[in-house]
Amino acid sequence: MKRRTLLGGTIAVVMLGLTSGAVAQQPPIKIGMSMPQTGGLAGGGKASLLGIEIWRDDVNAKGGLLGRKVELVVYDDKSSASETPAIYSKLIDVDKVDLLFAPYATVPTAPIMPMVKQRGLLLIGNFSFQVNSKVGHDMWFNNAPWGPPDSWAASFLDLGQKAGGKTIALLAADQEFAQNLAKTAREVATKRNMQVVFDQAYPPNTVEFSSIIRALKAAKPDIVYVASYPPDSAGILRAVNEIGIGDNVKIFGGGMVGLQFGAVMENLGSLLNGVVNYNSWLPEKSMYFDGTKTFFETYAKRAVAAKVDPLGYYLAPFGYASGQLVEQAIKAVGSLDQKAIAKYLRENEHKTIVGPIAFSADGERKETAVLQAQFRGVVDKNIEQFRTSGKQVILFPEKLKSGDLISPFEAARK
Amino acid sequence: MFSFELLLDAVVIGVLLGCFYAAVSLGLSVSFGLLDVPHVAHPAFLVLASYAVFFLNEHYGVDPLLAGLMITPFFFLFGLAAYRLYYETFEKRGSDAGVRGIAFFFGIAFIIEVLIILQFGVDQRSVTATYVGKAWRIGDMRIPFRLVVAFGVAAALTILLTLYLSRTYMGRAIRAVAQDQEALRLMGANPIRIKQWAFGIATAVLGIAGALLIIVAPVEPTLDRTYIGRTFCVVVMAGLGSMSGTLVAAIILGVAETIVLTLFGASWAPAISFAMLLGVLAVRPQGLFGRLS
């Protein structure tokens, strides 16, 4: 009798479990990653993570994936490349996560690529630049809008050429990322028979840019392509404002890192006017897709509490989009089989809050969606102004365009 | 691409930049040059002063230079406390204090960096003032006002410190303690108190130098690392403890840097300070304006 009761009870519990309590009893789907939360990349890392967290909360509110809740396992990599291999080993072997997201930026991502390839794991990239070009991992998908490596420089030089530019000056920081940009710009310029009249790499600890800008001005270029890092971007723009750059310059900027972050933009204020620079997302009409507006409403509220970039345009929506990519793939495949998810991601176009995303064989975007936008009518010390459209007018790509280039540069600065 | 105009421009900007280097090195010329304290936290103190100036400018609209003057008394007290801590924990204990002192000051520098990050975050900060972002036009040449301000402040600081060290009782005592601490003790003076006072003066100077730092360029918490090499280079090249020497050495460095930057390429510029330092030490081990002891 007792045994029968026990058996009956067990069956009842199991049945109950299979019907109503399924979500509660299944273990969560764990997505593991490291993220720079201290160190030089922390500003971007924190904003990116907040984007991913907003996606997690949204997807869990809708009942999770495959009937399971989504959980993030996140460690701080301190912006350091030496931290990430150990963190990802732990995520894979100890935490036994189901899926991996890469940390923000190139430097912390590069050292984990061989390991991820060797173990045959899917990795969603987070704004790294060309980390898979030599590794050739076929389960790598980058959320960044870069596209083919030369499209970044090509789009900027295109705009310059259309404005009548024939000669080019290159000013790049002496570090890998900026040098990669300068290299592609040099190649594109050669292909188009554009003469490079000034080509300098400045050391990362340069204090004063007056002399460099003076020498650049003396070379009388039509197009000035700058690949700089945040501390230098401010120094360069200040020197340009004081020394002047010459009336013949049609277009200035291109690859200046830092001008995408709220605090830096607020600091620079009117010095930004006229600069044409790369970006990933901007509050122009053409940039709103299904869910974008709702995302930024949530982000704006949570950014205050999280003390991260109040604008969050550059990285946060792409963090959310990473989540959307795996969400759609898992739903379509119906399992967590990483090979099947990778196959789905490679073969289909995916709807995200940053627009449709399709991947080429190397895991980068099929088509570039890097924006080239011109700062206009920016005033000093006002971060709220950047939330309105028209402050950064999109000139490229054609289908997202929201205005035309004002040239020459000196005219656009007024 | 050589032209006389560019060369002239490089020299003028170089002199002004050199004056800025002098202003940020003068404090170190006292603390390291005269007192033999291995003060590697000097640039961290400098960045801390910049953030204090930023705070006053951002929240109360105080002019950066005035803010620099306002914080000098606090930096003087901070210097007194820092030296006392250093003396009690390291210098008092013996001959290897120098090496361990470096560790002590590195520790202080890291603590300052972390405190700044906790309070102000990792973003760059800058100040607003009428002389920031404008330039003075002479023919084709344009000279940024912020560098002209650096020139004026550096000149004033050098004159004041030189007069203080040569004309006042306390100033002469500081030079005496630099020469022979034991002799001073035999005369009944307390060398430690004099050194503490001098360290306070050296730190107070950083208040104004910190204001210059944030006037010349935006600051971020780890900026001190950029200045460790340059400031020590200037002080050693000048000949330890010479104020006017510091100004001249910094100007030489500034001019050399901008000429290389303008005419030969930016990549070579950082090597210049150390190449010149090695050159000077090979020919004149006591530095350009130092005296052989």
Tell me what you see in this structure.
- The complex is a heterodimer of chains A (414) and B (293).
- In chain A, helix 3 (42-61) crosses helix 12 (292-306), helix 3 (42-61) runs parallel beside helix 13 and helix 7 (151-162) packs across helix 8 (176-191).
- Chain A has helices spanning 2-19, 22-25, 42-61, 84-93, 106-109, 113-118, 151-162, 176-191, 210-218, 230-243, 262-268, 292-306, 316-333, 338-347, 409-412, and strands spanning 29-35, 70-76, 99-104, 123-126, 140-142, 167-173, 195-202, 223-228, 251-256, 276-279, 371-375, 392-396.
- Chain A has 15 helices and 12 strands.
- The longest helix of chain A has 20 residues, at 42-61.
- Chain B is an all-alpha fold and 293 residues long.
- Chain B has helices at residues 4-34, 42-60, 64-89, 97-120, 145-167, 169-179, 181-186, 191-216, 224-238, 243-264, 269-283; strands at 135-138, 141-144.
- Chain B has a two-stranded antiparallel sheet with strand order 1-2.
- The longest helix of chain B is centred in the N-terminal third of the chain and has 31 residues, at 4-34.
- Chain B is globular and about 60 Å long.
- The relative contact order of chain B is 0.21.
- The interface between A and B is large, with 39 and 41 residues.
Termini gap of chain A: 92 Å
Number of strands of chain A: 12
Reading the helices and strands of chain B in chain order gives HHHHEEHHHHHHH
Number of helices of chain A: 15
Strand content of chain A: 15-25%
Q: Gyration radius of chain B, to the nearest Å? A: 19 Å
Largest sheet data of chain B: 2 strands, antiparallel
Query: Any idea what the radius of gyration of chain A is?
Result: 24 Å
Strand runs of chain B, count: 2
Shape of chain B: globular
Strand order, main sheet of chain A: write it out: 7-6-8-9-10-11-12
Distance between the termini of chain B: 46 Å
Number of helices of chain B: 11
Q: Which percent bin holds the helix content of chain A?
A: 40-55%
The profile of the biggest β sheet of chain A is: 7 strands, mixed
Which blocks of ≥5 consecutive residues of chain A have pLDDT under 50?
Answer: 8-23
Structural class based on helices, strands and sheet pairing of chain A: alpha/beta
Helix share bin of chain B: over 70%
